[in-house]
Amino acid sequence: TVPVRPGQNLALSVFARHPCSDRRAGANTAQVELQFLNLAGGAIGSPVTVTALTASSACDVHLPVTLSATAPAGAVSARIQLSFRQPATAAGAVHFDDLNLVITGP
Q1: Helix or strand or coil: residue 35?
Q2: Which residues 6+ apart lie within 8 Å of 101 measured at CB?
Q3: Which of 6, 29, 36, 92 has the fewest Cβ atoms surrounding its Cβ within 10 A?
Q4: Which H helix or E strand runs over 85?
Q5: How many CA atoms lie within 13 A of 32 on its CB side?
Q6: In this model, does residue 25 exceed pLDDT 90?
Q7: Are 80 and 4 in contact (CB under 8 A)?
Q8: Is 60 exposed, middle or buried (0-12, 13-18, 19+ CB in 10 A)?
Q9: Is the pLDDT assigned to residue 94 strictly greater than 90?
Q10: Is the pLDDT of residue 77 over 90?
Q11: What is the mean pLDDT of residues 22-35?
């Protein structure tokens, strides 16, 4: 998690790739998620989520992924989650690299 203040703008970028030697299959996806938290550590609203890769994404290519959000009232921190979702345990792997987070504003 990273500390934030309400009204701050967060811009996140990361590269995602899946190797041709272990291609993603089925309904597998890779996702990037940003969730704002209150002082008690509880989630504020729904997370901002971007699908980074699907089984049809090019393999062995670092694909850029970006998302942005503004910290809502009551936010004291933000949690970044990079995930690989395998709903039917289909094959595949994901690599994330060069995550960058820029926070601007009040």
Answers
A1: strand
A2: 2, 10, 11, 12, 80
A3: 6
A4: strand 77-85
A5: 23
A6: no
A7: no
A8: exposed
A9: yes
A10: yes
A11: 89
CA distance 38 to 40: 5
User: Whose structure tokens read 């921190």?
Assistant: 77
Helix (H) or strand (E) holding 84: strand 77-85
Could you tell me the two tokens for 10?
Answer: 């967060």
**Displacement of CA 39 from its chain's centroid (Å):** 22
- For the cut 90, the answer to whether the pLDDT of residue 8 exceeds it is yes
Residue 31 is encoded by which pair of tokens?
A: 């996702």
Question: 96 is written with which tokens?
Answer: 């994330």
Report yes or no: 2 and 77 within 8 Å, Cβ to Cβ. yes
Strand 63-70's sheet: what is its strand order? 63-70, 9-17, 95-104
d(CA 79, CA 32): 11
- CA distance linking residue 34 with residue 53, whole number of Å: 17
Strand 95-104 with 9-17, pairing: antiparallel
Q: In whole angstroms, what is the distance from residue 39 CA to residue 20 CA?
A: 43
- pLDDT for residue 92: 87
pTM of the model: 0.89
